[in-house]
Amino acid sequence: MSLKSIDIEVFGRFIRVNCPDNNSSDLHYIANILSKRLEDLKEKTGVSNIEQLIFITALNVCYELEIEKQKSMHCVKHLKSRMLVLTEMINKSLMKE
């Protein structure tokens, strides 16, 4: 997988980053999402300091990611317990035969 250097625009600023050739469109898409989040936060809070907006957005993204991780772990635990129950049922059923 080769890397290429591309320019992306985030919140009116251009940043040169390296990314795999096949991920450049994804990176542009994510940069647009980030720009939109920064713009929305600026409008909601009235904060115009770009550094402060970036830190607040980063904290929000990290919080959202952590919540999703917790949800995912809960789902995994639930699926594991259901699989154990199903395994027990199958084993009991096979023993009866």
TrEMBL record:
Domain of life from the UniProt record: Bacteria
Keyword Cell membrane assigned: no
InterPro entries according to UniProt: Cell_div_ZapA-like (IPR007838), Cell_div_ZapA-like_sf (IPR036192), Cell_div_ZapA_N (IPR042233)
Pfam families from the UniProt entry: ZapA
Keyword field: Cell cycle, Cell division, Coiled coil, Cytoplasm, Septation
Primary localization class, coarse: cytoplasm
GO BP terms: division septum assembly; FtsZ-dependent cytokinesis; septin ring assembly
Compartments (UniProt record): Cytoplasm
GO CC field: cell division site; cell septum; cytosol
Subunit structure of this chain's protein: Homodimer. Interacts with FtsZ.
Function (record text): Activator of cell division through the inhibition of FtsZ GTPase activity, therefore promoting FtsZ assembly into bundles of protofilaments necessary for the formation of the division Z ring. It is recruited early at mid-cell but it is not essential for cell division.
Family: Belongs to the ZapA family. Type 1 subfamily.
Protein name according to UniProt: Cell division protein ZapA
Gene that specifies this protein: zapA
